[in-house]
Amino acid sequence: MSEGGFDNCELCGSPGGEVVWENGICRVVMVADPDYPGFCRVILHRHLREMTDLPHKERMQLMNVVFAVETAVRCLYQPDKVNLASLGNLTPHVHWHLIPRWRDDRHFPQPIWATPQRLGAQRRRAVNGRQLGDEIIAALRTSETRTAVSKEIML
Fold first, then answer.
1. Residues 97, 100, 104, 108, CA torsion sign
2. Burial class of residue 99 in the structure, from the number of CB atoms within 10 Å of its CB (0-12 exposed, 13-18 middle, 19+ buried)
3. Which residue has the higher pLDDT, 68 or 8?
4. Does residue 109 have a cis peptide bond before it, meaning omega lies within 30 degrees of 0?
5. Which of 65, 101, 115, 126 is least surrounded, with the fewest CB atoms within 10 Å of its CB?
6. 51, 59 in Cβ contact below 8 A?
7. How many other CB atoms are found less than 10 A from the CB of residue 105?
8. How many CB atoms lie within 10 A of CB 10?
9. Beta carbons within 8 Å of 92's beta carbon, 6+ residues apart
10. What global pTM score does this model have?
């Protein structure tokens, strides 16, 4: 039985997509959705149901990854908006969806899980996993630098 009491958790049993980056806490996967290039998930490696089940330090580390992925997606895809969602109703395993959105995408302004608002959407260029992984690393380094500078200022 996995931690938290869930057998057969989809995110414990498989990567959940193409892994583009990972560390000891989580992995970032690309979701194969041609209508939403850049759609990623940040998935906690171990099975927990809620963000508040994580110790504070790990919670902050996970959110730093979420923010780095958002930064990378914005840089590479230039979306009009990025949706962040942590639902877990069907898969109660801590994970975040990062979904680039455009005013002319199939569902805008509704969530991508809602009824489409238009038949088709303009096809956007896809970026390979390596490029996204490199941008995530760059964003994490920038974040770490800002954090170090902030700590120095506070001392």
1. positive
2. buried
3. 68
4. yes
5. 115
6. yes
7. 24
8. 12
9. 4, 6, 9, 49
10. 0.83
Contacts of 122 (CB under 8 A, 6+ apart): 102, 104
Taking CA atoms, 99 is separated from 30, 42, 87, 111, in Å, by: 10, 11, 13, 10
Mean per-residue pLDDT, 23-47: 93
Tokens representing 46?
């171990």
φ, ψ dihedrals at 127, nearest 5°: -115, 140
Please give the DSSP secondary-structure letter assigned to residue 85: E
Confidence (pLDDT) at 151: 46
pLDDT at 96 > cutoff 70: yes
Coil vs helix vs strand at 153 = helix
3-state secondary structure of 133: helix
- Please, which pLDDT band fits residue 58 given cuts at 50, 70 and 90? very high
What's the burial of 56, exposed, middle or buried (CB within 10 Å: 0-12/13-18/19+)? exposed
What are the angstrom distances between the C-alpha of 30 and each of 3, 53, 150? 25, 25, 32
Please report the DSSP string for 66-135 in residue order. Answer: HHHHHHHHHHHH--SEEEEE---SSS-S-EEEEEEE-TTSSSTTS-TTS--SSS---------HHHHHHH
